[in-house]
Amino acid sequence: MDTTRNGPTARHRQRARIAAIGLITILGAGITATPGARAGAPTVAAAALAHPPAASDTSVSVVCHATWATGCVQSPQSPSSRAAVIAPVAATRTREPTAAPTRTATPTPTRTPTATSTRTATNTPSPTATATNTPTNTATTTPTATPTPPPTATNTNTPSPTPTPTPTPAPTATPYPTLATPSIMPAPTAPRPNGAPSTPSPFPSLPSPSPTPTASHARPTAVPAPAAARLSVRVTPPRVTSGHTLIVQVTTLPRTHVSLTVMVRMTRVTTRDVVRRGHRVRVRASQTVVLYRLDARVTTDRHGRGAARLRILYRPASSASARVEAIAQTAHGALRAAAGVTILPAAAASRHGCALPCTVGVGVQPGAVALDGRTGRAFVVDGGSNSVSVLDIATGAVLRTVRVGAQPNAVAVDERTGLVFVANGGATTISVLNAASGAVLHTVTVGANPYALAVGTAVRRVFVVNNSGVDTLDAATGRLLHTAAVGSDLNAVTVDEATRRVFVTDQLGNSVVTLDAVTEAKLHTTKVGSIPWTVTTDPRNGHAFLAWDNDRVSTLDAASGAILRTVSVGQVPKVLAVDPATNRVFAAASVDNTVGVLDATTGRLLRTVPVGQAPVALAVDERRGRVYVVDNGNDRVTVLDAASGAVCGAVHAGAGPTAAAVDPRTNRVFVVDKGAGGASHGAVTIFSAQ
What we know:
Blueprint lengths: L2 H4 L1 H22 L63 E3 L32 E2 L1 E2 L8 E2 L34 E3 L52 E5 L2 E3 L3 E7 L5 E20 L2 E21 L5 E7 L8 E11 L2 E12 L1 H7 L5 E7 L1 E7 L4 E6 L4 E6 L5 E6 L4 E7 L4 E6 L4 E6 L5 E6 L6 E5 L4 E5 L4 E5 L5 E5 L5 E7 L4 E6 L4 E6 L5 E6 L4 E7 L4 E6 L3 E6 L5 E6 L4 E7 L4 E6 L4 E6 L5 E6 L4 E7 L4 E6 L4 E6 L5 E6 L4 E7 L4 E6 L7 E8 L2
Parallel strand pairs: 7-13
Antiparallel strand pairs: 1-5, 2-4, 3-5, 6-8, 8-11, 9-10, 9-12, 12-13, 14-45, 15-16, 16-17, 17-18, 19-20, 20-21, 21-22, 23-24, 24-25, 25-26, 27-28, 28-29, 29-30, 31-32, 32-33, 33-34, 35-36, 36-37, 37-38, 39-40, 40-41, 41-42, 43-44, 44-45
């Protein structure tokens, strides 16, 4: 026996070479080993030798130059040997029969040890590489008896085309399972790092992923906060009376939770004498004590705005300074903001009235307000809670809350009869209240969806606009007197005391209908352009003013209903108000944020005044010559001079102001703040007339 070729030393050397081939394949080609494989055995079997073995060989070995950069290349010690081609192995296994071991002569004998124990002579025209999974972990090859040696793969920078061997299973008789070898596709060469020579890749071409930085080169950086990642806090009013409501408005990122804290702190300073080094020294120490704390939480809407109503129950002996702190937790960290507020004692408010400006909490979603100067009461309809809040005009305190019909939306007071009329839009009824006590006297059924009221003091009538027409009630008893079918889409109603005319806007008919205030007979219909919004009257001049279309205001003769003049004002003038003392008409345009000032005699436009965002209501103080414009968009009230139309100032209101009323006897202005919507309670902001 030839111990040099087949002895124990050669077999150990053979196994070492096979193990090296497997290691190079795993590390160089990125193919992981099978978990269940035996230690030292390669997971991917060596494919085939590129040269025929000698006739006396009992095994075929693969001679590799083990380098990390090039993988299996031609060994520099054996120039006649060929490089082995490593191919990926498919996941399917097939069992093929193999013949008995034979010795086959080849045209070119070599002394290179081989790694196979099977020789089968076939007439296959091309070399076929078959990897077998044998118990001895050897690579099985089936060389062909051809006089021409197959092409070789050399280690050059520019690889030559290599013929693609076709995986043709050889008819062998080995009982061991073999792995099906797919076709080896030539892949383009890629430059090796660090100047290593390029070699043809024996694996199929795959798309290479984009390079990504490794963890060693990645430096953690903080995500910069966007420009809108800010937090601002505003409190209304800046001075709140104990027992009243403080409105805190925050502005930050959309859908953000903001924690609010109202704290009253006091710093206590104590002094004591200590002896140091034989000398008496007076030491002062300060300590901060929290006297009052109130926590709340608010979530901003999609615009990043939120509001909270906090009832201040702290009762200081004198004015106390409090601090409102807000903390918003965002993805960019915590945002902080603060504002100051002064808490006034409740005793001062009970003697001299509400320390102005002040805010009083009422029901859910308040929408309208009416004042009764004789009884000193203010009536606020709470549409969300189906109630009416009765306030004392002098002190601003809520005297009682009265349950009425469903969804009250309008209120009117007849000072002569001492009755209050509330339109319940969801119940098709009118609730009649006593103005002095606020008690409900009786309920009257009217047409569907009543939503506007007007009181004719001279004729002792109350006119109710609903979907079916106009209902007339007796102002003294609240009894239903008459129903007139005027139109199907009525919007506003007003009464001219001088001419005893009732004007009703019909949006579906694009007209204004004039009725007799006593008999409720239809006198005439005045056609206008499109969408008549609202109507009001000036008893001194005998005119009626109609706002319609996108930007028109027409002056009508109250007696005949004829149109005297039409001018263009701001876009969508939905609100009109008349000041008889200055002979002016004011039209608030909610789209372009302006108020048009007209001459009440001629109907000519005198000037256009820019105000706050989305003006939705007007209130006129005839005694002081002021007009209060409720700006719903930025939660404030703009004060105008009634004679010139100049802006005199602005007063901050609560969230979502919708209506206003002025009491000339006490010089107080009441602004209804609807709130953030939903189930949140509204408020009434009270301030002195300016």
